[in-house]
Write a structure and sequence with these properties.
6 helices; alpha/beta; 226 residues; 36% helix; 22% strand; single chain; 8-stranded mixed beta sheet; Rossmann fold; 8 strands
Length: 226
């Protein structure tokens, strides 16, 4: 579980109603935003993840809005710290992500922006399932060290261009992602970051993830792209 905090300012706190809960998030919208990226964090993580915040800062610097959201309430997170069960409830997480997507489509600050998903670990599985449920709303997906095997039944229904990023030393996850790549029927690519393990803690590894994600989202979310 991630316990470090980050001082990166990724936007003011917002409360988002979704699937019967009010979820806490940080919404950052640069001037003339090209699109918005909704983050679905992984097992035992939160919107305070320094890894996701570094990626969000990079995306905002490139003109993309971001919403880092906790898909579990504080009470649910307390339960999950003991049981480690809810973080693997992909149907619950995907339902929350779908609700947040619907909120973005209604909110006056974001309703005109194309939406992308950035998912990590089990959050990537939730992103794939949610994208299959809202194919008209999701324009691109990036998975970092994801568990797409947990979204196997949804892969054939995903319509958003999907980038799978995996660490070169994350051997089991490489195999899971290769199998998922074969199951996707959309524009797709897998990028392996040489020398990186599951959390991309090696020098320069997370920056490479941020660069790859930024390029993918800029290309697929910016309506001005050729």
């Amino acid at each position: 579980m991630e316990t470090r905090s980050s001082n990166v300012d990724v936007g003011p706190v917002v409360g988002v109603p979704a699937a019967g809960a009010v979820l806490d998030g940080n919404l950052g919208i640069p001037e003339h935003a090209l699109g918005i990226v909704l983050f679905a964090h992984g097992s035992g993580s939160s919107r305070f993840s320094p890894r996701n915040r570094l990626v969000a800062e990079t995306l905002q610097g490139a003109g993309l809005a971001t919403l880092l959201i906790d898909l579990l309430t504080s009470g649910e997170e307390a339960i999950d710290r003991r049981t480690r069960h809810l973080r693997f409830d992909i149907d619950l997480l995907a339902g929350r992500l779908t609700g947040v997507t619907d909120w973005l489509l209604r909110d006056s600050r974001t309703h005109e922006l194309n939406i992308g998903y950035f998912g990590a670990s089990t959050g990537a599985a939730a992103a794939l399932v949610a994208a299959a449920r809202r194919p008209e709303a999701v324009g691109a997906i990036v998975s970092r060290g994801g568990r797409p095997d947990l979204a196997r039944d949804a892969l054939g229904h995903v319509q958003a261009p999907t980038l799978l990023i995996v660490g070169g030393r994350d051997y089991a996850v490489i195999q899971m992602n290769q199998q998922a790549l074969d199951g996707l029927r959309v524009e797709k690519r897998m990028e392996i970051v040489a020398g990186a393990t599951h959390l991309f803690e090696e020098p320069g590894a997370l920056e490479e993830v941020a660069r790859l994600a930024c390029d993918w989202f800029q290309h697929h979310l910016d309506t001005r792209s050729p």
